[in-house]
Amino acid sequence: MAETNSSKDDAAITDIEDLHRHAIMNKQSTYIDPATGFTVFTELSHLKRGKCCGNMCRHCPYGWSNVRGASEENASSARAVSGDRECTGRLVKQILEGTYYDDEDTNLLSTKLESNDANSSTIKPSLPVNSEKSTSTNISRGKGGRAGGTFTSKNVPYTRGGDKGTSQLFTGERRKKDDILFEALGTVDELCSVVGVVYAELKAAEKRTPTDNGTTKSIYGELPEQLLEVMSRLFDVGSHVAKPVPNIKEMDQSQKGNKGFSSDHTTMLEEWIDAMTEELPELTSFILPTGSVASSNLHVARTVCRRAERRMVPLVQEEETCDPDALAYVNRLSDYLFTAARYVNFCDGSDETQYRKAKSIVQRERIIVKLNGR
């Protein structure tokens, strides 16, 4: 029964460090990472082993001392010396007695008391203008992340964990930032940002097109909402890339479970493409990526999408850790973005300029296709 309650408590916690602390306080050797479903060893398990295994474990209490090329930053965070049985035995005893985090809790309480004393002043100090002076010996730097910064207790986007050129996957594994996986992940992120720019441009255009009663007019149909959906799905693609699943290429849908990427999203893109194409003049030639700013940026998004696809191919075909359905989605997305670029020009009433082949020094006039928009 105790295990059931613990599982329920774990399910309510999503932060990895909080999960680990909760497991340690409950004297557990492992916990389940809710993002991946993987079993993760706690510091208790590693301390019972007595030495660093050299596998870059997420909660290694030895600072990755037996990991080749480990940074000094990892070593400085070590709680124990690998192979020192007396030290590891003492720490195991602290965990079992429930005193493992006592020193940290005392330091945290002291920090909060100091913060309260500072806030009790009638004049609140402003943030220092000179950032170099702000990190003097009188001010301790915040840990970053959920632990807060130097001047705020709120969650901050920096953790300093990647300052040495490595980054951590959702599985806890650390890799160099120029790894092919991070190349794919970063390109998907870049693509999502470009789509966000287009969405902002479309919404701004709608605000500039008021109706008779003073409200804004939706001149792009369902496209803005579709772009929001696309951005959310790109987050899913990025999350999927950041959780490599060995041999996922060979798994069927039932084996993938929540580890895979649904092909339904690709089908939805095809339906959206069909709906927009039905309203457009039939395409009879290559077109130049011109027209309105939003349309041109959709062509930029299309080319970034093609690059994201190229970065994902090795993960599918060689590493076999990325779901082919995720790759298919990105492939179809480039087609969608091309169609959306034409559709925006159609809605704006902008002209569509066709490509012309160089036949001679005296070239024929460019062909401009009038798109009768709304």
Structure description:
- By secondary structure, the protein is mainly α.
- Helices cover 49% and strands 5% of the residues.
- It is built from 13 helices and 6 strands.
- It has helices at 2-12, 16-25, 43-49, 72-76, 85-97, 102-119, 131-134, 180-207, 223-241, 253-256, 264-279, 293-317, 324-348; strands at residues 30-32, 39-41, 166-168, 174-176, 351-353, 368-370.
- The strands form 3 sheets. The protein has a two-stranded antiparallel ribbon. It has a two-stranded antiparallel ribbon with strand order 3-4.
- A hairpin with a 6-residue loop joins strand 1 (30-32) and strand 2.
Describe the structure in brief.
The protein has 374 residues and is mainly α.
Strand-helix topology:
Layout: H1 2-12, H2 16-25, E1 30-32, E2 39-41, H3 43-49, H4 72-76, H5 85-97, H6 102-119, H7 131-134, E3 166-168, E4 174-176, H8 180-207, H9 223-241, H10 253-256, H11 264-279, H12 293-317, H13 324-348, E5 351-353, E6 368-370
Antiparallel strand pairs: 1-2, 3-4, 5-6
Features:
elongated; two-stranded antiparallel ribbon; 374 residues; mainly alpha; two-stranded antiparallel sheet; single chain
Q: Largest beta sheet, briefly?
A: 2 strands, antiparallel
Indicate the radius of gyration in whole angstroms.
27 Å
Oligomer: single chain
Written as H for each helix and E for each strand, in order along the chain, the element string is HHEEHHHHHEEHHHHHHEE
Mean pLDDT: 81
Poorly predicted ranges: 1-11, 105-113, 120-137
Percent helix among the residues?
A: 40-55%
